[in-house]
Structure prediction request, 266 residues.
Amino acid sequence: MPSRRQELAFTGLQADVAIRSGPEDLGTGFSATEDAGYRPIVRRLLRIVVRVAAGWLTVVLLLMIAYRFVNPPASMLMLQQWLFGQKIVNTWVPIEKISPNIIRAVIASEDSRFCEHHGVDFEALMGAVTEAGTARGASTISMQVVKNLFLWSSRSYVRKAVEMPLTLVMEMLWPKRRIMEVYLNIAEWGPGIFGIEAAAQFRFHKPASGLSAGEASRLAVALPNPRVRNPVKPGPGMQRLARIVQMRMRLASADRTSCVLPRRRN
Prediction:
């Protein structure tokens, strides 16, 4: 039997239930109170991200509506290069003053179904993913306009996921002729050389309205790698590609360009 003195000694000792570790706290290093403290911060950050994304999307849609009627002063690609110290040369020219040869060459080289699809060529896109396991390639002229005007240039599935719905919206707002006009005026044809007028003047010392079929085909072939391919001094591979483009230009039916160029009268 414990003595009276021992009973008094144990009477003042009580278990503190608050410091007992529950199963959820074992091995985590964080208490439930600490974990609950992070949740408001995470929710706040998510709200900020959603608001920024919604604001950016609103600006893009408003610009898209405006650019249906107003010529864009610059593209995201131009701004990106300008910020890194690249001198930008760009002269806007209306589509009426652009040679039909370059329009036919670009469609033959870059997007043969331009007049048929609604911004995204899903057949070509699925083929590119199936064959290469990546989203490289299969970018239509409409998708390139959206990318160059509003998005970043690096290849990724995230960019494609943003690019495609914006392209579908643009196709609903802009006619094909306007899409082609903007594309030819913002496309890169060399370091700091943007737009077909600047390219024609720099490469061939003539206006865009005077480009021949041969010059147009070489310019079109240079588009995928404009910083390396020189349409004035094409190598054997580039010459071969230009001949293929010229052949496609001759054989293509009027339907291929009818959404941009008026049909020829017989």
